[in-house]
């Protein structure tokens, strides 16, 4: 491509470099008649004159403001176009987009906090929802123990969008389940019975508020309820021996689904 001077006009490449616009965009604007170069060299190369550059500069300014090419054409060429009104409309769209981005940023902040801390509740809210025996250190310890697991990530994703009222509903569901377990134990419900299997399924449904619980995972959880001093004490406070009794219910239900509790692992698929 021959070199040209500013007096003669600028080539597409020179305009591209001067205005920081791609050659492809300049060719497209030429094709649609938005900004056509006024001159051509004898060899047929496009040359942009000073008035052409002024128009291009205006196009770049309006494009940076977010106007589409059709709207830019109207602003530049249609005398009936109310330019301030068009710019106000564009500003309204940008303001709405900014508001949406702020909401997304707030959502990201909550998701980050949930992954790092688990519960997005104050200590006072936790005590009010989960009872005075609840320890705010529990989520911190859980994060330290399970923070690298898929289940912690699933729990954090649920926690990030959950309100205190929704956490209260989770706590209420858990309390109702625990009362039902105590009453069933008092009534002599035996492992493997329809009543027992219903309670095991209900436990999986309630626990899904934290993360999906497969049957194999539930077997592992039942073992932990029985062997972990903290969990065992919590369940045995509902009824003495409830931790062991519930583990037996879970084991029997697992066998009915072809799972050997003795070899069950933390498997998400079964």
From TrEMBL:
A GO MF term: DNA-binding transcription factor activity
Presence of the UniProt keyword tRNA-binding in the record: no
Keyword terms: DNA-binding, Repressor, Transcription, Transcription regulation
Entry-linked Pfam families: MerR_1 (PF13411), TipAS (PF07739)
Highest taxon, organism lineage: Bacteria
Domain HTH merR-type: 9-78
Organism (species): Streptomyces albidoflavus
PROSITE patterns: HTH_MERR_2
Gene3D superfamilies on file: 1.10.1660.10, Antibiotic binding domain of TipA-like multidrug resistance regulators
CDD domains: HTH_TipAL-Mta
Protein name (database record): MerR family transcriptional regulator
């Amino acid at each position: 491509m021959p070199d040209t001077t500013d007096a003669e006009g600028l080539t597409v490449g020179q305009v591209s470099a001067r205005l920081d616009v791609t050659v492809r965009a300049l060719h497209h604007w030429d094709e649609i008649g938005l900004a056509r170069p006024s001159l051509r060299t004898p060899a047929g190369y496009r040359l942009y004159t000073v008035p052409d550059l002024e128009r291009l500069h205006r196009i770049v300014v309006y494009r940076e403001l977010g106007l589409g090419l059709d709207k830019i054409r109207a602003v530049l060429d249609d005398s009936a176009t109310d330019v301030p009104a068009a710019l106000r409309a564009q500003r309204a769209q940008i303001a709405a987009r900014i508001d949406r981005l702020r909401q997304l940023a707030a959502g990201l902040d909550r998701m980050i906090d949930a992954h790092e801390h688990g519960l997005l509740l104050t200590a006072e809210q936790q005590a009010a929802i989960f009872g005075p025996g609840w320890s705010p250190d529990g989520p911190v310890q859980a994060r330290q123990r399970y923070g690298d697991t898929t289940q912690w990530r699933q729990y954090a994703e649920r926690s990030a969008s959950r309100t205190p009222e929704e956490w209260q509903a989770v706590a209420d569901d858990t309390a109702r389940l625990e009362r039902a377990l105590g009453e069933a134990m008092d009534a002599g419900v035996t492992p493997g019975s329809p009543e027992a299997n219903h309670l095991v399924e209900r436990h999986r449904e309630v626990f899904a508020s934290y993360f999906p619980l497969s049957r194999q995972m539930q077997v592992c959880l039942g073992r932990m309820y029985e062997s972990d001093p903290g969990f065992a004490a919590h369940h045995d406070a509902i009824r003495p021996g409830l931790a062991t009794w519930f583990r037996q219910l879970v084991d029997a239900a697992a066998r009915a689904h072809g799972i050997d509790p003795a070899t069950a692992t933390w498997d998400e698929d079964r």
